[in-house]
Specification:
The structure is a single chain. The protein is α+β, with helices and mostly antiparallel strands. The protein contains eleven helices and ten strands. The chain folds into two domains: 155 residues, 2-Layer Sandwich (60s Ribosomal Protein L30, Chain: A); 154 residues, Phosphoribosyl-aminoimidazole Synthetase, Chain A, domain 2 (Alpha-Beta Complex). 35% of the residues lie in helices and 21% in strands. It has a six-stranded mixed beta sheet with strand order 6-8-5-9-7-10, sandwiched between helices. A four-stranded mixed beta sheet has the order 1-4-2-3. Strand 2, helix 4 and strand 3 form a beta-alpha-beta unit. Helix 2 runs parallel beside helix 4, helix 5 packs across helix 6 and helix 6 crosses helix 9.
Length: 351
């Protein structure tokens, strides 16, 4: 819905306590805050109705279906307290765009809920909005509406992204078949290693490698063009958010299959290779650390040339890393000699 400030059923006192903007010298009331920070993000979207109504109006084109996805980011869980506001906003938008990419969708609009602490500086808020504005232009998406509130807990941001696919062409998690190849876009493990850098580890890496890994943690690269190109090729797909092995397990579970991953085939950046050369034990973080936001998909035998064409046309690296097996064989990884690897950490779990 376009930005609202709470139900009329609440008393004025309750509404002020829950919905008021940060109580600082530069703070604005909620309506001024919306007008200053968020209305410009909706200016190009007729669906937003100028952020003056309680809902967005979206007409799906004939022959297309809408795709909706939502993710939340909580300080201390999904981003660090000292992460730049612009980077937090961009990551929030991009992790949702990554979900759309894994469905083969074209992004159209998004809804945003912001929960600010009472002492959040207006400058931080402006930087947050600026981050969204920059990525809106990059990815061709606009704000359609949302809500803005104050919270006694950590800052929390929730974004719902809306996209479109041609009717019947959404890529699902289910659908992988025995004998399919397992592929992944981009590189794996950079974000997990980047978090380690931000937490003070991997100090023996060169500065350029540390900068690369930090950037990969803070700013995912949603593979929208590649996802759209894979719609009629992939049997099943999802984006890697919880970790390669964990997300492969999700895909296999709903498809009723098993899988073998060849760790020697994992596409690694130069920075990840340098880190792994110094500490072979980092392979667990690389395979299970999460936050890669690459597309993991299964495709039938014989589609290799088509996948190579998509990679070339979209300038997206795509690597085959394994094979879909019967369910009874389970989901596992092997080393360069074909021996099963015991990975202690398979992926991130919230609970």
């Amino acid at each position: 819905m376009p930005f609202s400030t709470g139900s009329a059923a609440k008393s004025d006192a309750t509404q002020e306590r829950i919905m008021a903007p940060p109580d600082r010298a530069e703070a604005r009331d909620e309506f001024t805050l919306i007008a200053e920070l968020f209305a410009p993000l909706a200016a190009s979207a007729p669906e937003a109705l100028g952020l003056t109504d309680d809902a967005a109006l979206y007409a799906v084109r004939p022959g297309h279906q809408s795709i909706l996805t939502v993710d939340a980011m909580v300080e201390g869980v999904h981003f660090l307290p000292d992460d730049p506001a612009e980077a937090v906003a961009r990551k929030l938008l991009r992790v949702n765009l990554s979900d759309l990419a894994a469905k083969g969708a074209v992004p159209k609009g998004y809804l945003l809920v912001t929960a600010w602490q009472s002492d959040t500086d207006i400058g931080w808020m402006r930087s947050f909005a600026a981050g969204l504005a920059g990525d809106q232009e990059t990815y061709g998406i606009s704000l359609w509406g949302g809500d803005t509130v104050r919270t006694p807990g950590p800052p929390t941001f929730t974004l719902t992204a809306i996209g479109e696919v041609p009717e019947g062409q959404m890529m699902h998690r289910r659908g992988a078949g025995v004998g399919d190849g397992i592929y992944v876009t981009g590189t794996i493990g950079d974000a997990a290693l980047g978090l380690k850098v931000l937490q003070g580890s991997l100090g023996d890496l060169g500065a350029a490698h540390r900068d690369w890994l930090r950037d990969r943690y803070r700013l995912p690269r949603p593979r929208l063009a590649a996802g759209q190109g894979l719609r009629e090729i992939a049997h099943a797909a999802l984006d890697v958010s919880d970790g390669l092995m964990a997300d492969l397990g999700h895909l296999c579970a709903v498809s009723g299959v098993g899988a073998r991953i060849e760790m020697a085939r994992l596409p690694l950046s130069d920075a990840a290779r340098a880190a792994l050369a110094r500490d072979a034990g980092l392979i667990g973080a690389i395979a299970g650390g999460g936050d890669d936001y690459e597309i993991l998909f299964a495709a039938p035998p014989g589609r290799g040339p088509d996948i190579a064409r998509v990679a070339a046309e979209t300038q997206t690296p795509i690597a085959r890393i394994g094979t879909i097996l019967p369910a009874a064989e389970g989901v596992f990884a092997v080393d360069s000699d074909g021996r099963p690897l015991a990975l202690k950490h398979l992926g991130y779990r919230h609970f």
